[in-house]
Fold this protein.
Amino acid sequence: MSSVKSSAIVLKSINWRDTSKIVTLFTREEGKVSVIAKGARQLKSKYQGILESINLLEVIIYMSATRKLQILGQATLEDTHQKIRADYEKTGYTFALLELTDIFFKEGSVDTVFFDFLETLLSEIGKINNPRIVFWYFLLKLSSYLGFRPEFNICTTCNRSIASEEVGFSIREGAIICNNCGSSADSGWKLSVSARKSLSDLQKLNHKRLSSVSISLDNRFAFTDFLLTYLRFHSDEKLELSSLKLFK
Ligand SMILES: [Zn+2]
């Protein structure tokens, strides 16, 4: 058994037996790790209020390759992301980010870059007026990360760069199809000039500056539906995010 010290974001936490909790952590040094926090539900537990979703912690974990659940040795609260918790909509979209991270990261795959990316997005959600922008940005970047970056500017068939025309988007090809090359029969998604510009602009933003740039979005376009449909098709995950049901 070895001990590991790491920054960690709490993805979720469930009660376990009478007094403990099982906590899913996204750690910087070890990737996703499920730990048991013994006695966490006892009144005088050192973990009182610490193991809540969204919290950023500094943890010590006792790791053993032969166990499925690791043991939480210590957890210190670094950031509760209070600006997120104070806002219902920000909380919902943050839970959606954490749910997606939980779905797409298997235990044992370490990615420090993605950890830093996620932690930056949490602080940007705290600061931004419209948290949906961070959510859509995350869905776009997650698609790229998983190897199917959508293309909004070049027709997949003729490789022509498309300026100002409404075009179809092929979910399967992951790219637009211009009107000379055919219809968007395989998906039914039409991208207006402004929706396409919104998506393309979002894709180019720097994640550290999301809350400080202004981006014009086509309010008639169903970004969440479009991006989740796309991710669902390419990942074979159902993606019925319980966090988003808060908004229905
Ligand atoms: Zn074309």
User: Anything to note?
Assistant: The chain is about 30% helix and 25% strand. Strands lie at 2-16, 20-27, 31-37, 56-63, 70-79, 167-170, 175-177, 189-191. Residues 82-248 form a domain with the de novo design (two linked rop proteins) fold (CATH 1.20.1440.120).
